[in-house]
Amino acid sequence: TTFQDGGEEVEDGAVYNVTLKKVQIQQAANKGARWLGGEGDQLPPEHTVRQYETSKIRAIKAGTLEKLVENLLTAFGDADFSYISIFLATYRAFASPRAVLELLLDRFGNLETSSHGEVANLNSLESEMVLRAEIASVLRAWLDQCSEDFREPPDYTCLLKLLDYLKNNMPNSDMESRVQNLLKQFQNQEVEAVDGFCSTSSTDLVDGEELEISNPEEFSSFQDHVVAEQLTYMDVMLFRRVVPYHCLGSIWSQRDKKENKNLAPTVRATITQFNAVTKCVISTILGTRELKIQQRAKIIEKWIHIAHECRILKNFSSLRAIISALQSNSIYRLKTTWMCVSKDILLMYEELSEIFSDHDNYLTSRELLMKEATSKFANLDSSEKENQKKSQKRLQLQKNKGVMQGTVPYLGTFLTDLIMLDTALQDYVEGGLINFEKRRREFEVIAQIKLLQSSCNSYCLIPDQKFIQWFRRQRHLTEEESYKLSREAEAAADTNILSPKSQKSMVKRISTLFLGTDVFTPPKEQSLKSSPVGGSSGESTDSASVSSCEFNHSETEDVCVTPVSSPEDPLKKISGYPLSSCSPDSSMSTPSSGVSSKGSIFDAGSGQDSGSVPTRDSGSVPGSVPRALPVYNRQSEGSCIIRVSMDGLHASVYKSILITNQDRIPDVTQRALLKHNLEPDAVEDYELVQVISEDKELVFPRDANVFYGMNSHVNFDFILRKKA
């Protein structure tokens, strides 16, 4: 089959795109081959005769409303087989159901008279039967695909008009009985609250219940996979109810007008549910002031596990809601709490976050969504072996149940696409004709939504009323409340003082994390302080200490290494993940000052390791360690320490910052701003440059990798300068 562009055809009130389709309809043996007894498909081309047929495909490009409705009856004849579905999915952008129905039935569907003449030869019985079949086909498709168009309580004007037409023109037909049943269904159906699962208003609660802040113990009693399944159950119920035309840009973009407060209720319901999940995450983490650091960290870990379970269930809506909550300002700033989240779970969190990276217009999430839209199970790939094992184990349990899973998308991606299309393409073209090419483009997005809605029928989830009631009862914090509680939680963590026993256990854990397992805790009398080496000036230190915060029960229960200084210290990153960076803020250095902090295992000295921890292999020889630790002026093991000073201040006034081979300019700039007590959101207003010599500087591109881009043959001295 070959296709050829046939140009355009213009009629009164319509413009058509024409495509010529050439199809081989027969291949037979020629005269000589038949005499030899050969078959056409077994002979070489020179012994066969091929017959082709060329057909014309007309697809309406633009037209008046009358022409677009008329085209519903002639589309099959023009070989435009998708036209009816496209029209029904998008016509609400330019017409009402009543206007379309009146044109279809009164103007083109009148079988008793041919006075209008739009369809030729209506007097003949054959033409009447053809028209009857065409009308029935369109009406059947309308009821199948968009029955909600006829839900107009309490009068149901369109449905009654359709029923009257069928009684007069197609009495006792299946169509008539179907419309009667639909009318009864609408009339008997109670008004359903589309957002019944996610509303937190008092009217949705059982008598005697009140909104409450989450009880951590009650939340912890729900298993991770149960929470994910119930969130998925609620999301599925809402997503399946979404009316596709509610998502059209021309409709959804009008939602903020006062007269449109009830516009697109099915889309509003999914957004309400998304926000409810996000606020539930925040309230469970911040809602209880009495929580200790480890308890708060455990709740964060639990939500990350729940997000992972949502990924296994292919529920991208709740997955994104949870990730968004954890990335919110009030949760992200809990640096001390994040320090106590285990590294494996942080790796899992990072991988889940990457799904919704905004790189290339969210290309990762789009590709993943289309890849898994109709697949039976999630395709889980993890760069971390332990997470990969857990994922495959959970996935295997799902497969063993033998029940396929659907896919719940993050609806916001489609809404954005449709608004962009509505903005970019005109509604009308020259001559005031409706631009139907725009509707074809919109239908490409609508079709994806419909495909995913049909896939949701594969889910087999049972509601857990205990969890749903708990979820409904949650009192959501306002942004002001959550930020205030976040500041209180961080301030309380900063004032937490370690006992000597806890400090000792921390040093042991820090040593294990940095140097491997073959280490032992330094003796009590051994000081971890470092003095300047070789007569060089002392340096203020950013002690990149790391703690796992997974204490033995015999140790102090609620102890974690915490920053001694301002809660605004940035999270240090090792291998690209926020780890425990329990360090005092770097202060102004002077030639006589040598500053180190108790509990840190190294200081950023002048190019030399200090405060090394002795090992079994190396004995107690200072400076002999199996792995090089990050120091100033030397890159080792994918990390190093740089000095950053502000432009206009003396070079001796600097802040020491640990960077890794994963850090890029925006990350380092933001941490430098925080260190210098400047607004971290002003990253775009500053540039980071490396001082090469008195008259030379190295300027970095915006997204450059600092570790690999810097000049390692000169001092690791940087300047933070405001852009001109």
From TrEMBL:
GO molecular function: guanyl-nucleotide exchange factor activity
Keywords for this protein: Guanine-nucleotide releasing factor
Domain Ras-associating span(s) in chain numbering: 638-724
InterPro entries for this protein: RA_dom, Ras-like_GEF, Ras-like_Gua-exchang_fac_N, Ras_G-nucl-exch_fac_CS, Ras_GEF_dom_sf, RASGEF_cat_dom, RASGEF_cat_dom_sf, Ubiquitin-like_domsf
Example GO biological process: Ras protein signal transduction
GO CC annotation: plasma membrane
Annotated Low complexity bias: 575-600
Domain N-terminal Ras-GEF intervals: 56-187
Compositional bias (Polar residues): 528-551, 607-618
SMART domains associated with the record: RA (SM00314), RasGEF (SM00147), RasGEFN (SM00229)
Region (Disordered): 525-629
Location of the Ras-GEF domain: 223-492
Protein name as annotated: RGL1 protein
Native source species: Leucopsar rothschildi
Source lineage: Eukaryota, Metazoa, Chordata, Craniata, Vertebrata
